[in-house]
Amino acid sequence: MAMNYNAKDEVDGGPQCPPGGTAKNRRPDNTAFKQQRLPAWQPILTAGTVLPTFFIIGLIFIPIGIGIFVTSNNIREIEIDYTGTDPSSPCNKCLSPNATPCYCTINFTLEQSFEGNVFMYYGLSNFYQNHRRYVKSRDDSQLNGDSSALLNPSKECEPYRRNEDKPIAPCGAIANSMFNDTLELFLVGNESYPTPITLKKKGIAWWTDKNVKFRNPSGGESLKERFKGTTKPVNWVKPVYMLDSEPDNNGFINEDFIVWMRTAALPTFRKLYRLIERKSDLHPTLPAGRYYLNITYNYPVHSFDGRKRMILSTISWMGGKNPFLGIAYIAIGSISFLLGVVLLVINHKYRNSSNTADITI
Amino acid sequence: MAKINNSGQRILRKKEKQVRYLQANSRELNSTFGYPNNTIKTSRYSVFNFLPLNLFEQFQRLANAYFLILLFLQLIPQISPLAWYTTVIPLMVVLSITAVKDAIDDVKRHQNDNHVNNRSVLVVMNGRIKEDKWMNIQVGDIIKLKNNQPVTADVLLLSSSEPYGLTYIETAELDGETNLKVKQSISVTSNLEDNLGLLSAFDGKVRCESPNNKLDKFTGILTFKGKNYTLDHDKLLLRGCIIRNTDWCYGLVIYTGPDTKLMQNCGKSTFKRTHMDHLLNVLVLWIFLFLGGMCFILAIGHGIWENKKGYYFQDFLPWEEYVSSSVVSAILTFWSYFIILNTMVPISLYVSVEIIRLGNSCYINWDRKMYYAPKNTPAQARTTTLNEELGQVKYVFSDKTGTLTQNIMIFNKCSINGIIYGCGYDKNGQKVKVSEETEKVDFSYNKLADPKFSFYDNTLVEAMKKGDHWVHLFFLSLSLCHTVMSEEKVEGKLVYQAQSPDEGALVTAARNFGFVFRSRTSETIMVVEMGETKVYQLLAILDFSNVRKRMSVIVRTPEDRVMLFCKGADTILCQLLHPSCRSLREVTMEHLDDFAFEGLRTLMVAYREVDNAFYQAWSKKHSEACLSLENREDKMSDVYGEMEKDLMLLGATAIEDKLQDGVPETITILNKAKIKIWVLTGDKQETAVNIAYACNIFEEEMDGIFIMEGKNDETVRQELRLARNKMKPESLLESDPVNTYLNTKPQMPFRIPEEVPNGNYGLIINGYSLAYALEGNLELELLRTVCMCKGVICCRMTPLQKAQVVELMKRYKQVVTLAIGDGANDVSMIKAAHIGVGITGQEGMQAMLNSDYAISQFRYLQRLLLVHGRWSYNRMCKFLSYFFYKNFAFTLMHFWYAFFSGFSAQTVYDTWFITFYNLVYTSLPVLSLSLFDQDVNETWSLRFPELYDPGQHNLYFNKKEFVKCLVRGIYSSFVLFFIPMRTIHNSMDSDGKEISDYQSFSLIVQTALLCVVTVQIALDTTYWTLISHIFTWGSLGFYFCILFLLYSDGLCLMFPNVFQFLGVARNTLNLPQMWLIIILSVVLCILPVIGYRFLKPLFWPADVDKIMNRIHLWTRHPLLPPTQTKLRHTRPRRSAYAFSHKQGFGALITSGKTMKDKQAVLAAHHPKGAGQGPQKAGLRPKPRGSGRRKALRVTRGTHRSEQLGRWASTAGPEDRTNAPSGGAAGGKARSDHRLRGCRGARTLPTRPERRGAPACPSCSTTPGGRETRPPAPQPPPAPSPPARSSPTVSSDCPCGDTPQLTRAQLYRCIHISFAGPERAQRPSSQPRDRGGGFRTASPSQAVGALCPFGPWFRSWYLPESG
């Protein structure tokens, strides 16, 4: 007979003596909380609440879906694959690694004019920017201009941390693999001489990235001095302080660089490359017609079956062209509505039978 | 059993070989043995070892150990996809919550320990008394204990303030019995008394067994002054006892601190785990397997990917140096995924479960409706780990006495001479139901009445006042024929000590109606009859036994008539009646039927006037039978039989064995909840069955009740099969599925499926038959039979058997058992059952201390089970379903993402989200759900006990439900991954910036996930309190706040590598896509659930759903108030049993042993002969706190001589039997053992000169004084049948001469005893007293001590003195 010994019980002698003595009253407090009587709202799942829900969801989703779908469809978008895997492609020649630098030109026609601001993207496929080792291969301190991290980048950057005993700036696989094709767009007008389209290269990165997250190291006069003691990433041609001529778009705050550093979530992605601002309300930004694209082909993707694309797109309040959301909304709305009808019928049929088979209590 | 015992004893024997030596008052010597001091330590930790020890204990838990391993895995950078803090922070929080809880518990224990250890005690040191702390007490010290003090350590009783070194203790702490026990020191030490010089010089050496946990075993030898004295447990005061009724006593410390029997007994009780815990363990194992499988799949995927793509992608992402091939990479990835997917096993699961259980336990403690005001005790959840099990109980094993019944007997009705009394009638002659308002009978005419006694029928009192002869005789018989002892601390305030409450009730009734039993000595009974004191000579008690089922007393009335009064079971007594009572018997039997109808315990009362000569002859025979050594039992019963015949029927009594309040209702409700209630009682079959009917365990409508009373294997088997044949004949066929199942000889842990009988049956089995039935081959037979019965009564059970029955049920049935009881004999059962409930009642605290829940009334059980249990169960199930669901939905997202991230173990979420998800974002809503949710409120729970059913079959959370959670989780994660993925794919925001970057995607997915799980829990919540709203929506809001904090510039710039998501919140939360995604995901995740929940009751309606429908209907249209179910009225049945006390009590009375002071007087008077065996349990000394009888103290000399005399007499009891002592070796010189054998039928050979003319009850006057009795020879009262007239008492009762003891003398005695110790002038008829003073305090004792029996003792054993 084992006992659960408790010193307190030995002392107190167990239950308190009856009331009337000095023993304190041990009646529990009469509070709603302690007595589990908190006022409460008790929703019940009944036909009266469930069926309308289905119908309402249907009725709301279908118009929304249609709206989104229509908006998405109104967006102009053109996508040009310039990887050059097709032997007939003008860029096919650039697939061999020997031809550097390699230039190629792709012609295309816009059937309809692009109005408003037009955005130019480059798209990569089969490029695993979201691979775990790739994603972490960067040093945010360094990119933020931390001088100690500049000269001593984080271990995460391996194997692109140091090159020839000098720290790499910017370090890591992401920076090292920065997209370095140059795209130029020309409108082949009625005139024989093609007009180049002005491509704005600023304003393509998030404001927070450009102004907060990415900063050039402080110190010295020129950018070059600030990056003193570092070396360029292995794959790069030029060091980081020579990315652009404009000082506010050079070094770590180069917007092309910033955009690249914001890694994509999926292996097929597009990144904003240039802006084509609309000039006036009267003329379309990109009138319908023939265009050609000049490509300085530097970026090798063939080895891993990657694809490179150039995308031109207009934009709506909803962003770019993506019919998925609209279709999904329409589909779910319809299903919900249908389900509502089915449930209504079932309910009508079964409720009666279950009511007649009443419980006997 | 026997085997176990033997082996147990063998082990014990081994232990006994180690012997403990000690010497009193010799600390130097004792310290060489290295005994511990008296410090007790129940705390587990100290300040220094808390951290390591607690952590060690915590990491012994599987889940914690798992996370520790995980932590180490994460520290390997090659495989770790997550930052170390994702596991460390939750683990730290979890560990610290548990640690804080443990620390608080331990601090309490420390405080208690300190409190106990620092109590002061008086120690004898060098001839002086010193005060010291408990913890400083050493083995060999002599300590002084005072009244009402707890005993400090296990001490050997040396001497006490009481004569013979007697000490009274209460052992409620140890064995739960509240009655006082007597301990007695050996003579040589009791002589030390409180002489400090002697005590400190005492150098006895003790050799005794080493510490063990046997409470009732102690052997040792005391060597003192060259002599050896054996010691047994009667001399040992155990720690935990409380000294009562003893002013002081001295003891020698034998065992201290951890060596004490109390501490040796407090082995850790087995930790009870719920079915849910087991299920959880199984599920966690499943999850592990599932996790392993997923990791394996993903690792293979990774291998393939690295081979096909990753290898070629090395231009941009080279392999690490140590990765030689894709296989190596795959192996590493396996572990990476193992880390990532660790959230499948929810780290906070166990902590959350503990918090929820704690909360629900608090509700039990806080429930006012389970607070019992009269005792000031709320319900108490003593363990916080079993709550949900309360909602799953299928079998309740209940004790009877003190649990179902109050163990209070109430004199309810009586039938006297053919007239029934006690049924209240109002003025119109209508029967009224007794309620609070019913007017009680006024007993103010009787100063000695017990104010607590209530009676509702005035006619009886009127009859009493009128002086109805039969009524008087009836109550006289009740006031004489019993073995109750009285105590009168304050004059007029009588306290009865009855061994059986039935007797107490009868005597109390007689007392109130005017026949007050005031006091007794071994030879007299003093009764105050309607204000007039009379002393009856008690000639013999023909005591109760189970066979006889009756008891009688033979008294000589003051009128010198010899009367026999008898009470007993009607079945027996009927056969002993005089033929002339036949018609009265018929009437009375009808009344008894009426009484039985109401479930009352009945007794018949009869008397007989015995011819003096006949009595003398009988008395002689009786003495011979008493002294015979062979066949004493038979001879005695023959002798008794001679006397108890030709009885004249007086009437019958009906006693209500008062059930606790609301017991039948509770049992009806529990029955409706399909909880089967078994009564396991040590009581007799008749009583148990009676109670079973009274509280609806058995119903009259039952199709049959089987009684198992076989005395061997075969008969028991036959009985069981017979019963089964009736209940379900096909279960005996070979083809029965259960039989075929059993024939396959399944492995040991197998379950017997539920079988449905063809009706409602009850079963009664007694302990003897059960012993056979519990043997191996009959076990299953028993179980199958018994489980088909609705109600089962097991009577005559030993505590061990109670536990065996519970164990049997646990072994073969997948059900939850609950045992409820209040006494020490229920402890084994309480500990064996899944849930032990203790009734905090009169019978001590043992049951309570071992229980998991303590309630003070049986009726609270329905609330505990149907309300708290059901809620706890529902909440726990909801919690678990939701908890698993949310973690699956959360974790499985990584699985889908693997296909798009090269199986690289990239997480979908920000690491901070992973860290906080379980701990912060989703913990509060789920807590509010599991602490506040109520599907229906308490009223409905009790109104529809059927709602309890799902718990019993564990319908709300089982493996199937778990799989459903998994499926739901997979679905939700699928939706939550692919909807955002497809939406952001190639999408831009309205600025043209692409939104498909990893960080935005993370944010969208995690926000959508959080919204979905929040809406999901909102859907699960059926009881929305303000707190639920705050917690649920607040958590979601809090998430956004945290988001802005974590992604804020400041934090990110401080630690750019830790907080990388700078600005994501600002950029992404603006996106209309994001909100559209969230809405779509939520709807997509919720719609199927709503549809399923809506359709399920339509397609597969369960009873519960129908009831819920009805409740909802009523809640909305409160036109139909719920009606209370009415209890069916029971058909008449024969109950007829009353005595519940054990035999052997009469012997103690006639021995006079219980009257301590009287002994002292006697001893003082007869110094050489007053012997006294050790007092044993069974006698009831005065209750605690009787601040008594020390008014007059004998001088030391006398005291000493008492002892001398006593010890002299112990030498040879045989001599005394034949001692021709006219006085000296008087009354007390009987050996105890003989006394017991004689079963109380101690007749008193009366001295001739005392035999005055007996006064008959109907004599109008006695010489002594005023007579208030009614005139004697009246014709019998009107309704009595004519047959009665023949042997009336009055007709053949000679009235006459002076009784030998007049009332005046009696009063003088009382007066003397009050006056003081000076010698009273003895009445002339009294023989000389040569003793010293008188030691009495209370008048009753004075009477007992002085007047009647002093001289008688001398002739105690004399043959008929001529």
TrEMBL record, chain A:
Chief subcellular location: membrane
Coiled-coil stretches noted in the UniProt entry, renumbered to this chain: none
Gene Ontology BP, a term: phospholipid translocation
Pfam families hit by this protein: CDC50
TM annotation in the entry: 44-70, 324-346
Family: Belongs to the CDC50/LEM3 family.
PANTHER family found in the cross-reference section: CELL CYCLE CONTROL PROTEIN 50, CELL CYCLE CONTROL PROTEIN 50A
Name by which UniProt lists this protein: Cell cycle control protein
The organism of origin for this protein: Enhydra lutris kenyoni (northern sea otter)
From TrEMBL, chain B:
Binding site for ATP: 399-401, 503, 544, 567, 601, 681-683, 796, 802, 825-826
Localization annotation: Endomembrane system; Membrane
Comp. bias regions, Basic residues: 1179-1198
UniProt GO MF annotations: ATP binding; ATP hydrolysis activity; flippase activity; magnesium ion binding; phospholipid transporter activity
Signal peptide feature range: none
Cofactor dependency: Mg(2+)
Domain spans labelled P-type ATPase C-terminal: 850-1101
Annotated Mg(2+) binding sites: 399, 401, 822, 826
Residues at the catalytic site: 399
GO biological process: Golgi organization; phospholipid translocation
Enzyme Commission code(s) on record: 7.6.2.1
Reaction(s) the record says it catalyses: ATP + H2O + phospholipidSide 1 = ADP + phosphate + phospholipidSide 2
Regions that span the bilayer: 59-76, 82-100, 279-305, 325-351, 879-900, 912-932, 962-981, 1001-1019, 1026-1047, 1074-1095
Cited InterPro entries: ATPase_P-typ_cyto_dom_N, ATPase_P-typ_P_site, ATPase_P-typ_TM_dom_sf, ATPase_P-typ_transduc_dom_A_sf, HAD-like_sf, HAD_sf, P-type_ATPase_IV, P-type_ATPase_N
CDD domains: P-type_ATPase_APLT_Dnf-like (cd02073)
Residues of the P-type ATPase N-terminal domain: 23-88
Annotated segments matching region Disordered: 1165-1297, 1317-1341
Membrane topology: Multi-pass membrane protein
Skewed-composition ranges (Pro residues): 1270-1284
GO cellular component, one term: trans-Golgi network
Alphabetical keyword list: ATP-binding, Magnesium, Membrane, Metal-binding, Nucleotide-binding, Translocase, Transmembrane, Transmembrane helix, Transport
Record-stated family: Belongs to the cation transport ATPase (P-type) (TC 3.A.3) family. Type IV subfamily.
Protein name, per record: Phospholipid-transporting ATPase
Organism for this UniProt entry: Enhydra lutris kenyoni (northern sea otter)
Biological classification of the source: Eukaryota, Metazoa, Chordata, Craniata, Vertebrata
